[in-house]
Amino acid sequence: MSPIHLITVLALWLSLATAQTTAQCGPNEVYTTCGSCEASCQNPNPMCTQECRPAGCYCPLNGFVRNASGSCVPSSTCRLETTSRRPRRCPLIKCIPGRRCIQPICTPSSDGPVPTCQPNEVYTTCGTCESTCANLDPPCTKNCRPAGCYCPLGEFVRNANGSCVPASTCRITVRPITRPTPIP
């Protein structure tokens, strides 16, 4: 097959594949191979981490949110909820009596005790991927991991023993350059 025919076949296949994935998306949705958490009418500012969600159709980030029926709509069309029903973010605000700050939201104190974390760890309800001594820059999206104790991003990394330590304390293993021994 000639290069021109091969390029034509590849271009046709690519256009069909693209058309197929975009045709499956609903109005105001975009197809992405590395999804992120979406805003919704109920939660217009979700706390997200940087881990990929499965490929699929998502609301675009430019002012669209998912409504209660599952459609992507302009955020301006969401029915306004009373501020008492919307979680308040902390520490930007002080939690009212009877509520406590479980990052990032003020939650009722009756939810049970906040787990005690190890040194240099923080408890968060929206976990994130963590840097480690072995991988200082892991690929992340804005998905939440389960609530728990995590190393604060940008401050500490998890070492091989499972402790959160300053990145500067990680031992970088460098293999020495070996030169072949000359044969006499």
TrEMBL record:
<feature type="signal peptide">
    <location>
        <begin position="1"/>
        <end position="19"/>
    </location>
</feature>
<feature type="domain" description="TIL">
    <location>
        <begin position="25"/>
        <end position="78"/>
    </location>
</feature>
<feature type="domain" description="TIL">
    <location>
        <begin position="117"/>
        <end position="170"/>
    </location>
</feature>
<dbReference type="InterPro" id="IPR036084">
    <property type="entry name" value="Ser_inhib-like_sf"/>
</dbReference>
<protein>
    <submittedName>
        <fullName>TIL domain-containing protein</fullName>
    </submittedName>
</protein>
<dbReference type="GO" id="GO:0004867">
    <property type="term" value="F:serine-type endopeptidase inhibitor activity"/>
</dbReference>
<keyword id="KW-1015">Disulfide bond</keyword>
<keyword id="KW-0732">Signal</keyword>
<dbReference type="Pfam" id="PF01826">
    <property type="entry name" value="TIL"/>
</dbReference>
<keyword id="KW-0722">Serine protease inhibitor</keyword>
<dbReference type="InterPro" id="IPR002919">
    <property type="entry name" value="TIL_dom"/>
</dbReference>
<dbReference type="InterPro" id="IPR051368">
    <property type="entry name" value="SerProtInhib-TIL_Domain"/>
</dbReference>
<keyword id="KW-0646">Protease inhibitor</keyword>
